[in-house]
Design a protein that fits this description.
Length: 582
């Protein structure tokens, strides 16, 4: 049986609109004025709570922030993603973009920005910052408003003369154009984590940023899951194979390295075009030489941020025992040292009076090396392959060697452990279109990613044509992966193969030589939608190849040099011109 009083209360609630949450009982309800007023208040409160539950509360609004980056190996891109998450906790809603996706005129519409940019080669900007760099450094670059508030973080290596040149140039030029540098530029060295952390805290502590901060929001869930294994938390792989690819009589020693990723599962997945970070150990003989030159036993206990350890342990596994930079000399109280001097040379020839702690305080942390992956995970599940050229040279009358290259090739025993992580490449991957033509240019160890590309296309049964440019000094001594390449020719996977041997004849032939000689066909492939990939030395080969391609476009496209540059710009914009250079 229905209750008339409850029915009246229900009707009173239902009769109210969503805009009006004030509840009033009908005049004929059996209550006196005091009772009616009390119930009206109670029902109004209940209605307000119900309305609030039905309409989601608005999230605090963050202030827009532009994070602009230029990255060659991927570190600046990784830091940009970290900055986005941190910005959300500081009241900013950040977006990330490559520097080359921004026009200078766009900056006038931005009030808050941070720029993270690396320098590579001989003070050059990364490939995805070249256009921006050229625009901002141009004499006719437009003025910028003082409302464009920015700060720059540079990634570099102080052992090179043009340390952080690109970031420094961008920073000073933006200031000259009228923009407001709200926090000083941070010049990060090879071990960039601490300096980057200091910089991002400094940026959001400035008055410009703190006064503009909006609501604090939770960082958006990442579309890509955070990697389990990273630079500072590597996966422990096992070396399963080392095979010398170059002939014993070659001037170079190039090794094929195979590592097992067993147990890594999807957490150690990689795509062709990615790089593998490898944590090396220093050579025990080199460590012994340094200890002897400095008069140390190696048992001295040295303090570090992560705890104390013996000097010998730190020199073997934690510190860069070669590089001497300005900070090292200052720490050791040395005014100057001859160019190229390494730690051993300083101790052996300059003979500073150092204790173990002071020696270590001047040394940089040992860093992982990045190598282009030379295998397809489809062809070699549970493994990753590298193509590594050992570094050997003489300095000050003493034989020297590369740390990681000789560790992998000579000192790391089969079955031994090695810490690794995948450095994903956002812009050096084969297209999803299996019908697209590929032109791959990689002399020497630059062939590494193209072995992976061809293995991947073979496994995918891709129909698109493939053209490989490869070469080195001597065909008989330096033809890396000859058997595999010959097989790909026989099966038709490799349609064109252009081989350049620079020392086999009196005429020095390089890959760029063949690009120009075969320019008509090269240009025809471009007109058919070919993608160009270049891997190898940045200082000479990559620039010479770039020039050769531009000349081919101008000659066989019958256009001016300016139009050839525009053609190349279009290839870059379409991601049809990609480089993995170092």
């Amino acid at each position: 049986m229905s209750n008339p009083l409850l029915a009246q209360l229900s009707d009173a609630l239902a009769s109210q609109s969503s805009e009006n949450t004030v509840i009033e009982l009908p005049e004929n309800a059996p209550f006196d004025n005091e009772q009616r007023n009390w119930l009206n208040g109670l029902l109004t409160g209940i209605s307000a709570i119900a309305a609030a539950a039905q309409s989601p509360s608005e999230a605090p609004v963050g202030t827009p922030l532009s994070i602009l980056y230029g990255s060659q190996s991927g570190n600046a891109e990784v830091l940009s993603k970290d900055m986005k998450k941190f910005a959300a906790t500081q009241g900013f809603d950040a977006t990330i973009a490559e520097l080359d996706s921004i026009e200078l005129t766009d900056l006038a519409q931005i009030e808050h920005a941070v720029i993270i940019c690396s320098t590579f080669g001989e003070g050059e900007p990364p490939d995805n910052a070249k256009k921006f760099y050229g625009s901002v450094m141009a004499d006719d670059a437009p003025s910028l408003p003082s409302t464009f508030n920015f700060s720059v973080c540079g990634l570099g290596d102080s052992s090179y003369p043009d340390f952080n040149k690109c970031a420094l140039d961008i920073n000073s030029r933006l200031v000259a154009l009228g923009a407001n540098e709200c926090a000083p530029i941070m010049q990060c060295d090879a071990a960039f984590e601490d300096e980057y952390a200091e910089w991002k805290q400094a940026v959001f502590s400035t008055e410009v940023f703190t006064s503009a901060a909006g609501g604090v929001t939770q960082a958006e869930p990442s579309v890509e899951t955070e990697p389990t294994y990273t630079k500072n938390h590597p996966f422990i792989a096992n070396q399963i194979c080392v095979e010398q690819l170059s002939h014993p009589d070659s001037a170079k020693c190039v090794n094929h390295i195979e590592l097992s990723l067993a147990g890594g599962g999807e957490d150690m997945h990689y795509d062709v075009g990615d790089a593998l970070g490898v944590w090396p150990l220093n050579c025990p003989k080199d460590v012994a030489d340094i200890l002897a030159a400095g008069g140390f036993s190696g048992k001295e206990v040295v303090a570090q941020k992560t705890g104390s350890a013996s000097l010998k342990t730190l020199l073997l596994s934690k510190l860069n025992i070669a590089t001497v930079n300005a900070k090292a000399l200052e720490t050791w109280g040395i005014a100057d040292a001859p160019e190229g001097f390494q730690v051993f040379d300083v101790l052996n020839q300059l003979k500073p009076n150092l204790d173990a702690q002071t020696l270590v305080d001047g040394l940089r942390p040992l860093q992982p090396r990045l190598y282009s992956i030379a295998s397809s995970p489809k062809a070699h599940p549970g493994e990753v392959h590298l193509t590594v050229g050992e570094v050997h040279y003489d300095l000050q009358g003493k034989a020297r060697k590369g740390v990681a290259s000789t560790w992998l090739g000579k000192r790391l025993q089969e079955g031994a452990n090695v810490g690794v992580y995948v450095q994903a490449s956002a812009h050096f991957h084969i297209p999803a279109d299996d019908d697209a033509p590929l032109i791959m240019i990689g002399p020497g160890t630059g062939i590494a990613p193209f072995r992976a590309f061809l293995e991947e296309r073979e496994m995918r049964q891709a129909k698109g044509p493939n053209w490989l440019f490869f070469g080195d000094q001597h065909e008989a001594k330096d033809y890396l992966y000859r058997d595999q390449i010959t097989k790909w020719q026989d099966t038709g996977l490799l349609n064109n193969l252009s081989l350049a041997w620079s020392r086999d004849t009196d005429r020095k032939i390089y890959v760029q030589t063949l690009i120009e000689e075969q320019g008509a066909e090269f240009y025809a492939w471009l007109e058919q939608g070919a993608y160009i990939y270049i891997c190898g030395d940045a200082s000479r080969m990559a620039s010479d190849v770039d020039k050769a391609i531009r000349d081919v476009i101008a000659t066989h496209g019958n256009v001016s040099a300016e139009d050839a540059d525009a053609y190349m710009d279009k290839l870059v914009a379409e991601h049809r011109y990609q480089r993995d250079v170092y």
